Fold these 2 entries.
Entry 1:
Amino acid sequence: MSDRLKIAVLISGSGSNLQAIIDAIQKDNIPCDIQLVVSNQALAYGLKRAEYANLKTKIIDHTSFPDRLTFDQAIGDAIDRAGAELVVLAGFMRIFSHWFVNRYRNKLINIHPSLLPKFKGLDTHVRTLSEGETHHGASVHLVTPELDTGPNILQGRITVHSNDTPESLQNRVHQIEHRIYPTVIQWLATHRLVINETSMVLDHQPLTTNGKVIDYEDI
Ligand code: GRF
């Protein structure tokens, strides 16, 4: 039996996080295989990135399903057929049913462009600036039924500069995302991070719900 971690990556758009994961698996020799890339958008550029990397792709268009549950079931069936053990949401712009989240309990991770629990939802860069925050960043977290509320695994934090705009923040946060998402996948694939029913343990130390925080001075 292979001891490589099998993952499915779900996208809706550009897929720059998918690209960062593809690149890191190769460059850092992470024992992980992307079994399937699923998009709900046929024109998502991330599908092209997946094809360039010779990955299996599947388009599951949410508009062709009568309701959220049947869409989620189709996604779940594709993930299971691909044999994925971990589901990685990378800019997947659909909210899942509780049924789906429970089916992949402790096996479903997401990346969000803010220091959760601050700024759940959309427009995180604009809101960070308008609230006068001194710090901003991105969070990789476990997905629970409520949107953007699962416990954090890893946060990458940057200082907000006085001349930052929503665009510059978006760009800087994207750079953080491209570092922290592959890092978490590496931790899981090498069993440095173990997620179970009651806790997440990194290097034999339980994580708090804030997760581990890394400050990036160079971004
Ligand atoms: C990222 O900002 C991520 O945090 C959010 O959606 C965006 C996806 O970007 N969930 P990309 O498609 O990976 O470039």
Entry 2:
Amino acid sequence: MRKPVIAGNWKMYKTPKESLAFVDEFLPLVKGHDRDEILLFPTLTSLERVLDATAGTNVHAGAQTMHWLNEGAYTGQTSPTMLLSIGCRQVLLGHSEQRLYLNETFERVNLKLKAAISHGIAPMVCFGELLTEREQMQTEEVLRTQVRTALHNISASEAQRLAIAYEPIWAIGTGITASPEMANEAHEIIRQELAHCCGAETAQNTRILYGGSVKPDNISELMAQEQIDGALVGGASLVAETFAKIVQYK
Ligand code: PGA
């Protein structure tokens, strides 16, 4: 049984004050909710405060990315040990906005993934195809290559705390969602490739979340799919009441 994860990706939104106001409103709304794991990815300036404000609750928080080295002359970067020093034990890696606008590559995601694992930070790695790739029927090949590159040399035991998010790039922030069947099919491809890389048991146990315009009114049909083990929610995670509705899907 894979426990579902509902994660909110706040991207470059919310000051620390706004983040804390969200947490204050959100915690009572999801109090006692145990069916799904609940996770927030705030910006770095809010992360420590959100971690402190959610400590001991059913809501967890992680960083939106990190570097793979512990320190060095890398302006603008944050290291795994720095995340650990503020109590952060989860990280999102390879989000498509990092790939599209900040030159993130799956080779680097692989380095970051290895660093996260060796530091005991649970990684959530994002995969997904462009609209042109889908139109040219390249989705399967693209996803398989992405998974193979990101998971290169990751063993089954190392992949134990790995989670994956399938986010078709054309569905992110566009209001267009992949149909539940389309998402399910992509998740199946990712799970097969995961089995090739890290073994059948890892593939069976790894949560694969769907992301891309998830809203309170489409979450239930997505979660009804066999291969969908959660959601990575951008825009609709910014309002406490809306995100709580998503967490409480039927
Ligand atoms: P969206 O973003 O829900 O606003 O489409 C999802 C994501 O980028 O993680």
